[in-house]
Amino acid sequence: MRHVIALDVGGTGMKAALVGADGTLLHQARRATGRERGPEAVVRTILDFAAELRAHGTERLGGPAAAAGVAVPGIVDEARGIASYAANLGWRDVPLRELIGAELGIPVALGHDVRTGGLAEGRVGAGRGTDRFLFVALGTGIAGAIGLDGRVEAGAHGFAGEIGHIVVRPGGTPCPCGQHGCLERFASAAAVSEAWAAACGDAEADAADCAKAVASGDPNAVRVWQRAVDALADGLVTALTLLDPRTLIIGGGLAEAGETLFTPLRDAVRQRVTFQKLPEIVPAALGDTAGCLGAGLLAWDLVNHTDRTEVTP
Question: Is the pLDDT assigned to residue 89 strictly greater than 70?
Answer without folding.
Answer: yes
